[in-house]
Write a structure and sequence with these properties.
The protein has 248 residues and is an all-alpha fold. It is 73% helix and 2% strand. It has one domain. A two-stranded antiparallel sheet has the order 1-2. Strand 1 and strand 2 form a beta hairpin. Helix 2 crosses helix 3 and helix 3 runs antiparallel to helix 7. It starts with a strand and ends with a helix. The relative contact order is 0.13. It is found in: Mitochondrion inner membrane.
């Protein structure tokens, strides 16, 4: 689509992100369409409740110093991120599908938006005192500028590291499965007894890597959730002593 000098394309990432969103919405809709589900949950309702509890526990455990009501304000955003990642990461294991998180620009956009939102939350809750996150407590005043710079660099690097971690894990695992699957299928189709027998090794490796990659895809969704909770905890619970020492 061309609008003026701008071109817009409906790409594979757009299609599969839309499919993931539709899948999640349909699952939640069918589970809750009767006003909250059944008193005796079926398999799908149990899955939704399991996802809810799985996200709620890290929020309560990792974000300290806040009341339950304040934590619940962060819960919907964290829950959406986890659920979307949980359904999105394993998509590449389905034949003829596409792994959205294997594109670095997409994972970088997601991690940067989360970092920006957490930074805004930090300033909203603490004002300019949020800058004390870059100044450890008990630092002598002459060393303060150097330590602020050293602490600020890794803090800003969070926006990049989260995207790189997810992209690297998804790309490496899915690429390994694809390469070995292609090798096993080629050996299987050569109509030669030697290659047919030799195909058992790559075939078993593909099966093992498939299970491992499914576990990694689910684990990365959990790691992303824990990271968000830790970053929120750092942004909301600051070491005020370092800031006060700076002014003293």
């Amino acid at each position: 689509m061309k609008i003026g000098n701008l071109y817009f394309s409906f790409t594979n990432p757009s299609l599969f992100m839309l499919l993931t969103l539709s899948l999640v919405l349909l699952l939640v809709h069918f589970v809750t369409k009767k006003g909250g589900g059944n008193s005796v949950p079926n398999a799908w309702q149990s899955l939704v409740e399991l996802i809810y509890d799985f996200v709620l526990n890290p929020v309560n455990e990792q974000i300290g110093g806040l009341s339950g009501n304040v934590k619940q304000k962060f819960f919907p955003r964290i829950s959406v991120t986890f659920t979307f990642s949980l359904f999105r990461n394993p998509q590449g294991m389905i034949p003829y599908s596409f792994t959205v998180t294997s594109h670095f620009l997409i994972t970088l956009g997601l991690s940067f938006s989360l970092f920006l939102g957490i930074t805004i939350v930090g300033f909203q809750r603490n004002g300019l005192h949020f800058l004390s996150i870059s100044l450890p407590a008990g630092v002598p005043l002459p060393l303060a500028p150097f330590l602020v710079l050293l602490e600020l660099i890794p803090h800003c690097f969070r926006a990049l590291s989260s995207g790189i971690r997810l992209f690297a894990n998804m790309m490496a695992g899915h690429s390994s499965v694809k390469i070995l699957s292609g090798s096993a299928w080629t050996m299987l189709c050569m109509n030669d007894l030697f290659y047919f027998i030799g195909d058992l090794g790559p075939l078993f490796i593909v099966l093992a890597l498939t299970g491992l990659e499914l576990g990694v895809a689910i684990l990365q969704a959990h790691v992303s959730t824990i990271s968000i909770c830790i970053y929120l905890n750092d942004a909301t619970n600051l070491h005020q002593s370092g800031w006060l020492f700076f002014y003293n």
